[in-house]
Structure formats: C-alpha cells, structure tokens
Design goal:
Helices cover 41% and strands 20% of the residues. By secondary structure, it is of the alpha/beta class. Strands 7-8-6-5-4-3-2-1-9 form a nine-stranded mixed β-sheet, sandwiched between helices. Helix 6 packs parallel to helix 8. The two termini are 26 Å apart.
C-alpha cells in the first residue's frame, strides 16, 4: 500500500496542548498563497505517482478552508481511486456545505477533533466548539453517508476526574461512531501548557490516576465492541485507520505541505517547517535509513499494535531470533511488560501503560 499525507497548517486558534506545525492565518489570501505552493507539489507528485491507497488531509485544521479552497485542493486528487480518504475537521468550522463538498470530492472518512465533552476543560484547552456543534456535525455526516467517522479524545487533563472521563466515554458510545483515538495529555515543548508548567501554573495529573484512566478507556471501549488495535486507537471491526497502518507497518507514504513527513522504504523525508522557505519551494530533507534503523523502526511500531510482533516473521526476515537481536528484551519480559501469545511478542496491560520503557529496547 502507498499513502499520501497533506498538511494544512492553519487554525482559527492555537490549542494549548498542540505542538504540530500550525499558525493562525493572517488572511484568506495567505491561505491561497500556501495552496499555490501545495498544488505545485501535488502536480509534481501526479507526474510520478499513478496509484494511492490512502489519502489523509491533516493539520492544523483543514476544515478552516472555505469551499473554494477545499475544492481547489482536492480536485487534482480525484483521479486516485483510494480505499480510505480522510479529512480532519474541527466542529466549529464544519458546515453542511463543506460536508457535501467533501463527499462529492471522494472523502469517505472524517477525523473529528472533539477532545472532551466537558465545557470547562474545552475552555482550558482553548478549543472553540460546543458539544452541540459536535452532535450536529456527526448527525449530518451520517445523513450524507460518509463512510467512517473517527473522534479524537484527550484524557488525563489537569484536574480531570474519572467521573468526567466516564461521561466523555459514554457520550462517545451513545454517538455510535466507528473509531476513537484516545491520548493522554502530554506536555509538549513549545506549547502554552508547557509554558505554564515551567512557571508552576500547570499541574499534570499524577501517574496513578492517568494509569487508572487509561484502564477505563480500554475496558469501557472494548466492552462496547471496539477493538483495541494500537496503543491509542480503538475501532469497530473493519474501521481501523488504513493510513495510520501504513506508518505502523513501514509501508511507503508521501508527505506534502510544510512540516510533512514521508517514507519511500529507503529514505525518510521531511518538509521544512519554515513557511517562508516552503513558499519559495525549498525541497524536503532526505535521510537515508540503514538496515539497523529500518529494522528497529519496523519492530518498534509493530509493538505499538496490540497483536504485537510475529516471532516467525522476525526469524524469516532478519535471520535471527528476536531475543538474540535485542537481548535487553529479556529484562522487560521478566518485568512483565511484554508477553508471548500465539507466537507474537506483545505488550501486557502494564506494558501498554509503560510502553516507552519497552520501546527503548529498539532505540
């Protein structure tokens, strides 16, 4: 499989936890100027690439684009007959007209930025939508038969309680959606929350409560028919994110737009984050991946998936036993962070909570 990721770095407001490449646009004309540069990249890609399996338009906030800009962006991609076509949406910038246009242009999956249904926490996150906006967007997307809806959820927020999280999870279940990406709040550098933390104005939730909340997420969603197929991702059967699976299984993908990453099987590429340089056409940086790096990345990402690493595959592909390749795996195995089930090495429940300790084995 081969995928395409397109980055739209514009937001109506900057969320206090977000460290992605983003900015508040100074004008519609500035967005158009960015699209000019992006469409040159797309035209060049179209000369070389004849087939794509997935397209993912992320950000930032792609739904900040107006109708003409959305059509202008997506029209050069219409000849690709993709299996999965995802467009990220924030509820406050969704409209019925945009939904209908996305459907017309071939989009069959929406990733909706919800994060929480608690209004006080939404304000602290600097999110600009209301719960009713979420409900209205989901109702309309279902009415026009968009094939799949994914929702982002953040937990372990400052001062969040388990009862608040329980309400968030129940609301998602009641909305009857197909896919949920659930992430604990991480204090990323260069975010407002990190700025507050350095000034003792932000207190992260304690690790025990965060672990309890993760258990709640896993138990609640699996009890209601979701497959916990990756550390942070849950889906109804058949609704796994094909695009993200490309990343986790080291298949090739193209990255277009400022800050976007790509991988062709040998080189990883990254576009400049500097808007001025991007608008002038600066080419992406390419980094060669040697055999050890490729193997380490391959196995680390497979371990993020709950079915784990096929030990027979490792022996066949890399000509060695996994524990021979990584002797320090013995320690995390003895500590109960990984287990072997059906000839797959996989994270235990405790290992899911302490995954970074396991992933260090492959770095």
């Amino acid at each position: 499989m081969t995928g395409l990721y397109i980055h739209i770095p514009f937001c109506e407001a900057i969320c206090h936890y977000c460290d992605f490449v983003k900015r508040v646009p100074k004008s519609e004309a500035f967005i158009d100027e960015y699209l000019d540069a992006l469409l040159i990249e797309i035209a060049n890609m179209n000369k070389e690439v004849k087939h794509l399996d997935t397209i993912y338009v992320g950000g930032g906030t792609p739904s900040i684009l107006n109708l003409a800009q959305i059509e202008r962006l997506l029209k050069p991609l219409q000849h690709f007959q993709v299996k999965e076509y995802t467009f990220e949406v924030n509820p406050e910038s969704y409209s019925t007209e945009k939904g209908l246009l996305l459907k017309k242009m071939g989009v069959n999956r929406i990733s909706l930025g919800v994060q929480t249904f608690d209004q006080d926490h939404l304000v602290k996150l600097n999110r600009k939508h209301t719960n009713q906006m979420v409900f209205d967007a989901i109702d309309h997307l279902k009415s026009i038969q968009i094939g799949a809806i994914s929702v982002d959820l953040i937990y372990a927020l400052e001062h969040q309680t388990t009862s608040t999280l329980k309400n968030d999870l129940q609301t998602l279940i009641d909305l009857d959606i197909d896919h949920i990406s659930a992430y604990s709040l991480i204090l990323e550098k260069n975010t407002y929350f990190h700025y507050q933390y350095n000034r003792n104005q932000f207190k992260p939730l304690d690790e025990d409560t965060e672990a309890t909340m993760y258990d709640m997420v896993i138990d609640t969603l699996t009890e209601h028919g979701f497959d916990h197929y990756e550390i942070s991702n849950f889906s109804k059967p058949g609704f796994e994110s094909l695009h993200n699976m490309l990343y986790w299984t080291q298949q090739p993908y193209i990255g277009l737009g400022t800050g976007a990453h790509g991988f062709d099987g040998t080189y990883r590429t990254v576009q400049t984050k500097a808007m001025g340089k991007y608008l002038k056409g600066e080419p992406p940086q390419k980094t060669f991946q040697d055999e050890d790096t490729l193997r380490n990345d391959h196995l680390l990402f497979l371990l993020r998936m709950t079915k784990g690493i096929d030990l027979s595959m490792v022996q066949s592909r890399y000509k060695k036993d996994l524990f021979e390749l990584y002797p320090s795996l013995h320690k995390v195995y003895e500590d109960g962070l990984v287990e072997i089930t059906n000839n797959h090495l996989r994270l235990t429940r405790r290992g899911l909570q302490l995954g970074n300790l396991v992933f260090m084995v492959f770095i």
